[in-house]
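[Solved] Which block belongs to which protein?

Original post:
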Amino acid sequence: MKKVRDETLGMWLGVLGVAFFAVTLPMTRLATGTQADPQLSPWFVTLGRAALAGVLSAIFLLVTRAPRPRPNHWRPLGMAVLGNAIGYPLLLAYALRVVSASHAAVITALLPLVTAACAAWVLHQRARLGFWLCAMAGSALVVVFSLLRASGHGAGFGFEWADLLLVGAVFAASLGYIYGAQVTPALGAERVICWVCVLALPVTLPGTILLWPEQAVAASAWVGFVYVGVFSMWVGFFAWYRGLAIGGALRVSQTQLLQPFLSILAAMPLLGEPLDIVTLGFAAAVVATVIAGKRLSQPAMPAALAPASR
């Protein structure tokens, strides 16, 4: 029963983290602007958001008197820095200067499947064939939905160089998530993201100061910047890393399938976009794949013979 409760709590924490992350894409778009109307530079947004989270993290670690990580923790923390603090936000910010948010959603919709594959590779977590079929079905639903939205908005879809940036962002985020989850049982979810942000400070803080914008920037861009620094880079990971750790990274990663739909819900008050029946239908189908994937995520072999997942 305790294992079931832990898995359920992990799934809900994953959903909470995804809810915070869901607003990242529109807020990043607000912060960077477009090629026609640029605001904050992608490098400033990347380094600045990590620096803001790093200052908050340093305060948190000092107030809670957190112990230093052990020597075997530094490598996964360093990988999380490269993936979550630098790689993902930088590649995403540059891509959003070139392609639309709908176009970006088509590529980043593959994040849950890639994260699950990274969990199986890095953490040696196993699942039955049914889980992988559900993961691929859910990813396919999200991709089809994103294609329909892009087509409906007249944006079209065609692979270009910015898609390589988005693919790189997906892999960077996935590896960062998994390596962060690897040390969460030992350090705690809150301390993992805090140490990740603090480790990045020697680069992010000077970079933020050097790249501070000299031109006038819209207030909405600063709002987007503060959001991605406080919530996308910091608070959201408190829930996300803990959910991955106690619920199983391979299973909880599938809650990311909900992210495009939560982004649409967030865009309603922010951008005035309507919610249509097609969106609701696809959301319901994706939720069904997440639930089915959770039920099929148990190892095929008996628990007594299965290798430890973390």
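(Second protein starts here: sequence line, then its structure tokens.)
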Amino acid sequence: MHVFVTGGTGQTGPTVVAELVAAGHKVTGLARSDAAAARLESLGATPHHGSLDDLDSLRSGAAAADAVLHMAYGGDFSDLDGMTRRDRTAIETLGRPLEHSGKPFVVTSGTLVMPAGRESTELDEPDTAGIAAFRIAGERACLDFAARGVRASVVRLAPTVHGPDDHGFIPMLIATARKTGVSAYVGDGTNRWPAVHRLDAAVLFRLALEKAPAGSVLHGAAESGVTLKSIAETIARGLDLPTASLTPAEAAGHFVSPFMATAYGFDGPVSSAHTRELLGWTPTHPTLLQDLEHGDYLAGPAS
């Protein structure tokens, strides 16, 4: 299968591209720079020059492929409406060449779109007033293609996709602990975050492309919910620092931004039971706390 990939040089993208190539698929990746093109070539993929704002490049890349995987997301986080429009437009542009073809179209979202305070399943509705509601428009734009002859599906990744050289939420938490001298959590720290190892996430994306039914919503969560207190305590042991409980008001000034303080206090466990049963996905790689204890997270100087 010839797969056109966006976001193939991001944090999770290279692992996904490598997984697809190893499984025998041909991969063409969107590249907005020479460095990105070289990275894709090193992974065995063919670069396709363009960007999310270059709609002609998206259209031609999708039209030439047997499947499309959209992982790229970005823009100005101070303009969430603008980011949402950009992503929705990119998804609509990528999907149109696939109409009435039965070809697979997989779009990435995040489990933070789900309601807080309980374990959500893939069949539950996302929270339109939640912390990550800006991702819902992209999900819907993708799933709309299921009624237009496209094998469209959405993969919601856990907020923590962990593994070597991570530069996401957990490294930000560690950097804050190094800077402030305490490893902090919000309230009693019993709020839960799903997690998945990057290698397991890559397998899930491959399986989604290969066999997810049209209209599927999939949860990329190997662990349904890891408490933020256990994460903070593991960081504290590794850095030989104390832990600290913060009020939401204190957290807003302690962490990188008020948004991150809200995210670190969010209780959003999810189930991936339906995903596992549907696709035969079985995560096998280390858990988040195992990665924190034995991986590269706590090595080296403050970032």
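Accepted answer:
You had them paired correctly. Confirming on the second one: The two ends are 40 Å apart (CA to CA).
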